[in-house]
Every structure is written in structure tokens, then in C-alpha cells.
User: What shape does this take?
Amino acid sequence: MPEKEESFELYRYWEILWRHKWVVLLAVIVVFGSTVIFTARQSPVYRASSRVLISPPAYLYPYSGTGQLLAAQGLPYSQNLPYYINYLENYRIWLTGADMMDKIREEVESLYPQSEQMPFSMSVSTIQDTSIFSITVEAGDPELAKVAANTSALVLMQENERTFAIGLETASELIEKQIRSPLEELSRLRGGSESSGTTDDKEPESQLWQASQLNNVRIMDYARTPTSPIKPNKKQNAALGLLVGIFLGGGLAFLLEYMDTSIRTIEDIEKYLSWRVLGIVPQFAEIEKKASGSEIQPVVTKFSKSASAEAYRTLRTNIQLANMDNPPKSLVITSTAPLEGKSTTALNLAVALAQKESKVLLIDADLRKPVIHKLLHLDNSTGLVDAILNGGHPGAFVKQSKDIDNLWVLTSGSVPSNPSELLGSSRMKALMEQVTKEYGYVVFDTPPLASVSDGAILASQADGILMVVSPGKVKGEIGRRTKELVERIGTPVLGCVFNGVEPSHRNYYYYYDYYSSPEGEKRGL
Assistant: This one.
């Protein structure tokens, strides 16, 4: 059971997306197209990187004598991080400072004159667990990116040498003074006889100065000219635009579904109308392609093995079983709004009843927009209106169908100026009493209840009302008001027909499709 419920929920989600497929498609096209256009208009960005090795001094290592001494004295020291991390951070801040950046730009412009009007950006990072700097430059010109990355490494090495030289020169001067002071004092005490000794002491100072020329910054890798841009990533942006478009379209579809209060499912009928569903009729899409002539076809005879024909036969059976003790003989077929398929239902239900060898009279009581005579190709010069005006005697105006046995038709006839008054007249009541006695079933095709009062007037005189509901045609609140109107009429509602269900609603009429399929015929069903 849980798996079936989960499958049903997934189907419902897919149904919502399919119902709003044009919204989803439009969102995908707009977002994807905008992303592609935006990406195409972006300037390419190239990246080049150089690597620099910075060797920290020995005292930063804990296993050296100096490092152990610092740790023993309790000086600030981290054993959880690399020992040189703060030392390297100083270099990173120094390299990305304003003064160094100005020097780098000047050097780049001298090496690559075209870069004067071309900006570039530089970032410095440390490769994990090493003392190696990665100097990365991004620019709109691949050659500029390479030159700037290499220049940054060279400027760092040169400035580091100069800084070391200045620092060590100062230190040398201090050491020289410290050495000369005691020597001068000793010379003074000895009367100047040892003054020549100062010349020999300059040899260690010379060695110290030579040592100061060593540089702890060394270039490991020079940058190379990049062959392809890193931005924009056209494939990634296109995929992201497509994904965002799908999610946006799906979100809009579910939002529209949430805001849509129209009656679309059997659950909506139960929620807003509380009527029994006596039949579910699929759309005639495939049938209309095969059919010629009028849009509405008596599918029960012309396409007797179709799913739609089976649906009408099921509807006929459910109506006959609605009240076994007192089955309804006069049926009013109506709907809430136009274009819900009431005339289609009235015609095919009358044909289905006639196939059971019952004497059936189909009356076109939609005096404002009659269509039954067009569907059956009958003369409409006289009909129901003329019968009412003739005193309620329909005999001379009833026409028997040439193609369908047991089916008689009373078309609308002349166009009246006062349809409501005619349908509510005593002559109409007399006519209904007479045809109910003469025929086994009388089926009325009436106007929609929400449009005019004709259908309500005629429904008050019938044995039962059959409502036709088409998915998405009527808002839930309007359907609820129609239900209240029908309840005030007093005539029992036999149920409703869910008409025009899309083929994607397989869970609604898989039964009919199964029994109308070639496989069903082979099984003898």
C-alpha cells in the first residue's frame, strides 16, 4: 500500500506539470535563453599561476635548538599548526599590499605595454602543508596574465633581497660598533700600541655581510600562457540555466495549481459538489480525427468499441441502477457552464438507452443554442416550440432517427422570443406528462444552469437531473453555487458525468480502454 500511494503521488505531481507544460516550457526557454545570451556577452577571463618557495628561518622549527629553547621558555608557539604559518602570512600580506602592487603594475607595464588599459587581479595562497606560495593572476588577456604572474614573483624576490640587505647592513654596523668599543678602550689603556688590531677583526664582519646576501625566496615555477579562459564556463552556465529554468517552471506550475480552484478531479467533485460520479468519459481526440462532419459524434454507434462508447454504456447502467424501485424516466441533462459537453452526453446517453430496446425520446430543450438537429442531420423547421404552441401535443413534430433504432427526436423548432416562459408553461407540463407515458425514457438537453434559468425551470418538472462536469471548466465556488441552486429546485440529482477527461488520466478510464483494446477482443471480453 505505501508503494502504491507513493506512486499515485508521483503521478499527481507529473499530472500537474503536464497540465502546465507550456508554463514550464516557457520558463525553461526564458531562463536558458537569458543565460546563454548573458554568457555569450561576458568577456573571457584567463588565469596564470607562478610558484614561489619561501624558506622560513631555523628558529621557527620546534626541533631546532632555538625552537626548543623558545618552547621551554613558554613563549607563544602553536604545536597544532605548521610552525611557519604566521611567517608566511606576513609575506602574503606584504605581497598583496598597495606598495607592492604599485611596483608590480609598473613592472608589468614596462614589460607588456599593452596592459596600460587592461586591468588584472592577483591572489596569493599557500599550498597546504608547504611553504610554497601560489601567485594567481586573472586578466582578460592570456599574455597579460602570464606576465603579471611572473612579474609578481620576481618583484617579491627582488624586494625581499633588498629588505634583507638593508636589515643585515644595519646589523653589521651595530656589530662593528660593539667590537670597536672595547678595542678602542683597550687601545687607550695600552697607550695606543694595539690600535693595529682592529684591522684583523674585520674578517668576521666581512663573512657576516657575505652571508647576508643569501635570499630565502626562490621562484619554483614560472607561469605559462593559458590556452583557454576559465570564465565564462559556457557548458556549466548552460546546464545551470537549464536546471534553474526547470525548477522555476515547476515552481510556477505548482503555484498556479495551488491558486487554481477549478474542478479538475473526482476529489474536487467530492469536495465542492458531493455528487456521485456515474460515468467518466474520456476525450474524443482520437475519435474526432477519424470522424468527419460535426465535432460531436454519437460514438456509441459509430465507434461502438471505443473507450468513450463503453463509458456511455456504463453511464446508462448506473442510471438504471440508481433507483431500482422507481427508475427515472425523464432525465434533464445540464451543466454549470457552457462547453462542458451536455449535448454530447444527452445524445450518446439517449443512443445507449435505445440500444437496450427501450423506446427513447431525445428532446432538444436548449431553445437558445440548439444543436441536436445538426448532429443527427434532421429538419428543425418545427419542433418543441411548435409542439408547445400547438397545445402540448408533440406527436406531429417528433421525428424518428433513420440510423438508430428505438430513438425518436424532438428538435427545438422555431426560435422563440421567450424561452423561459414557454418551458415553464402549463402546456410544457402537459407535454412532459404525455411523452413520459409514451416513451420508456425521455432525455432533455437543456441550457447551462449558470447561464439562464431555462434548465432550472425544466429540471423542476423532471424525474432526475444528470449534471455534466468537465475538468477545468468551472471554478469550485461557482460549482458550489450551482449545487445550492439544484437543491432549491427539489428534483433529485442522480449524479454527474465527468466528461472530457484527458488521456493522461489513465487511472480514470483504464477499465474502458482495456475492454475496448484489441487484446480484450482476443480474450473474448
Q: What stands out?
A: The chain has a mean pLDDT of 79.
